[in-house]
From TrEMBL:
Domain of life: Eukaryota
Gene Ontology molecular functions: ferric iron binding; ferrous iron binding
Pfam families per UniProt: Ferritin
GO cellular component, as recorded: cytoplasm
Any Gene Ontology biological process: intracellular iron ion homeostasis
UniProt function note: Stores iron in a soluble, non-toxic, readily available form. Important for iron homeostasis. Iron is taken up in the ferrous form and deposited as ferric hydroxides after oxidation.
Segments forming domain Ferritin-like diiron: 80-229
Protein name per its UniProtKB record: Ferritin
Natural source organism: Seriola dumerili
SUPFAM superfamilies: Ferritin-like
Amino acid sequence: MFNQRLNQTDSICGAQSVWTHVHFNVILLCRGSVSAQAGLCASGISGGGNMAEPAGKRLKSSLPLCKTHRSSAGTSRARHNLPAAVEEALCGVSSLLLDGAYRLQALASVFERDDVALPRVASFFHQEALKQQDETEAMLGYLAERGGNYCGKDIQKPGCEAVCAVLPALELLLLQLKEEAGVLVELSQLARKHADPHTASVVKSHFLTPRVDRLKLLGDLLTSARRTGCTSDQTGRFGEYILNELQEELSR
């Protein structure tokens, strides 16, 4: 009987020893799992499998900043809550819009030539140039109201000297409006990032929203130009004539 109880005691002790060993291993595994999870979180990997975007892969800003900008901080009495980054971006975007107006004016002069003679197309680009000029003056006026400085720059060639047909001129205007819309979106986001909601609201309502209608109009005009047979060279003159005579949007 005594030997039987001794054997039972040894079995219980052995089982407890095995359970203690298993329990200790489980603790080590749990600690290792937590450490691994913490390491994944530190490296930007969450439990759901999402990975943080590497710093080198993030898109760079395309805002046309003024590298030689002279800030009005400390000299302007009207300046209030205007971050230096927003002031510099407003200065650069104003120059971009001014360049666009100059380019549109150059395109309008192309269709006034006697060897092209598309007066409605020329008037359309004149009106677009005037809209661009008005927007530039409005942005410069807003920059002055906020107490910022504008730094002018040298006027460059418009880069459209080779354009001599309606189709490439419309495509160039479409690309210009898309580029400006993207820049205005970045300007609005920059203003919000620097706690300047007023600038973000003004940019969105006065400069970005009107471009939506202009982009739709350009898309319609491009479709009509291709439908009437306009080409990127001087071989689609009859289609350009039909577009000039029948497209009502050109005289708006």
